[in-house]
TrEMBL record:
GO molecular function: histidine-tRNA ligase activity
Catalytic activity: tRNA(His) + L-histidine + ATP = L-histidyl-tRNA(His) + AMP + diphosphate + H(+)
Swiss-Prot/TrEMBL keywords: Aminoacyl-tRNA synthetase, ATP-binding, Cytoplasm, Ligase, Nucleotide-binding, Protein biosynthesis
Gene3D superfamilies linked to this entry: Anticodon-binding domain, Bira Bifunctional Protein, Domain 2
Top-level taxon: Bacteria
Record organism: Castellaniella denitrificans
Domain Aminoacyl-transfer RNA synthetases class-II family profile: 24-327
Name this protein carries in UniProt: Histidine--tRNA ligase
Predominant cellular place of this UniProt entry's protein: cytoplasm
Quaternary structure, from the entry: Homodimer.
Length: 427
């Protein structure tokens, strides 16, 4: 035994093992096809960025920047760095840096891990994964609608049920300023019911106070002036334009005037897709318009809109709505006895793969019995047996394994040269 004390993984950072990883890969493949269907292209940014990108981009007084970021000083050059807590700021930085969005508007996406130092619980991890989609350079509600229609299609593709859309409009800066004054006055009037966090935020980010889940503050929040009532004609027209298009597509939505989202950069459209089937962490996807962010991060002003899906939450819901058996390791499991048979089995397996079949050659123990146990456990449809007799006759024994199949337990002989063709036809 080694002296080494075993090391566990980090709290809130999960491993994914087979067969669960097969679901991840399937989801990723479906997502790439789905995005390609709408002309979205992949844009990849590094995990590490300058801390000030997020402090500026997400907003100093958001939860993420205040307390959730994994930040450190690079000891080699004293730079403050942060592991991305979301994709948008990095994508915008990249688009500005490479002049990627000025010649024409762009539809891009990214998929991968993001990092937030939160209290781990179901649906809330410290390393989690997002599918992030951004439409850069588009001003109109048509593209807001495209994103939402597109999401409805993904839920359909996955067979998800009970997922509903909430919408709000955060208007423009002047409308928010007028509302903010009224809201702060309301909060000051009810300061006695505010919890500590709300008191801290009432002047720095009063809109977020309304996002509270504290039951004692619900009456106060419900009675607060609604930003939606401060919207001018243009903002309302944008909202109406979105709703008309959702109606065209037959997508149901509810206006939630308290929906604000946890990042500071949004204006006009914001939305969330929520479900009651994931416990307390019911938001599967959140998004909205952020027309000011590109300029805020040093680019030429350009409008933009996007969303992020939490993949762990999506997978949890998908598992509930479309459970299935563990995927098989292979379709054909090759068992063999003796050195020569092993070498022949390896060659045959290559010919099966040439024919597009998934084949696994037994490795390790030699007894036929334990090899058949492994063949069963692999989930293969058939075992191909190569022993002394088979080598002598040039015919493999094929044993059909899968319960429920007509052929289960049946056995037949097939010439080595015909195996690939015959198995391909039958599987
Ligand atoms: P929440 O209110 O749940 O904290 P958020 O507003 O911080 O969410 P966003 O920054 O909008 O979330 O991220 C987009 C999506 O990423 C969320 O809708 C959710 O599905 C997912 N998500 C956010 N934080 C986590 C986390 N810690 N673990 C797993 N998924 C997460
Ligand atoms: Mg959060």
């Amino acid at each position: 035994m080694s002296e080494f004390k075993k090391v566990a993984g980090l709290t809130g950072m999960k491993d994914a093992l087979p067969p669960e990883t097969a679901r991840w890969e399937r989801l990723e493949a479906i997502v790439r096809d789905w995005l390609a269907g709408y002309g979205y292209q992949n844009l990849r940014t590094p995990v590490l960025e300058h801390t000030r990108l997020f402090a500026r981009g997400i907003g100093e007084v958001t939860d993420i920047v205040e307390k959730e970021m994994y930040s450190f000083v690079d000891p080699l050059n004293d730079e403050r760095l942060t592991m991305r807590p979301e994709f948008t700021a990095g994508i915008v930085r990249s688009a500005i840096e490479h002049n990627f969005l000025y010649d024409r508007p762009r539809r891009v996406y990214a998929m991968g891990p993001v990092f937030r130092h939160e209290r781990p619980q179901r649906g809330r991890y410290r390393q989690f994964h997002q599918i992030d989609v951004e439409a850069l350079g588009f001003p109109g509600p048509d593209v807001d609608a495209e994103l939402i229609v597109m999401l409805a299609r993904l839920w359909r593709l996955l067979g998800l049920k009970d997922i509903r859309l909430e919408l709000n409009s955060l208007g423009q800066a002047a409308e928010r300023a007028a509302h903010r004054a009224a809201l702060v006055a309301h909060l000051e009037k009810h300061v006695d019911v505010l919890d500590e966090e709300a008191r801290r935020r009432m002047h720095s980010n009063p809109l977020r106070v309304l996002d509270t889940k504290n039951p004692a503050m619900q009456d106060m929040a419900n009675a607060a002036p609604r930003l939606f009532d401060f919207l001018g004609a243009e903002s309302l027209a944008h909202y109406r334009g979105l709703c008309d298009r959702l109606d065209d597509a037959g997508i149901a939505y509810t206006l939630n005037p308290r929906l604000v989202r946890g990042l500071d950069y949004y204006n006009l459209t914001v939305f969330e897709w929520v479900t009651d089937r994931l416990g307390a962490q019911g938001t599967v996807c959140g998004g909205g318009r952020y027309d000011g962010l590109i300029e805020l991060l040093g680019g030429k002003p350009a409008p933009a809109v996007g969303f992020a899906i939490g993949m762990e939450r999506l997978l949890d819901l998908w598992q509930q709505d479309a459970p299935d058996q563990d995927p098989a390791e292979c379709q054909i499991y090759l068992v063999h006895q003796g050195d020569e048979a092993q070498r022949r089995a390896a060659q045959i397996a290559e010919s099966l793969r040439d024919a597009g079949l998934r084949a696994l050659v037994h490795a390790g123990s030699t007894g036929f019995k334990s090899q058949f146990r492994r063949a069963d456990a692999s989930g293969a449809v058939a075992a191909v047996v190569i022993g002394g007799d088979e080598l002598a006759s040039g015919q493999a024994t094929v044993k059909w394994l899968r319960a429920g199949d007509a052929g289960q337990g049946q056995q037949e002989s097939i010439a080595f040269g015909q195996l690939a063709g015959k198995l391909q036809q039958r599987i």
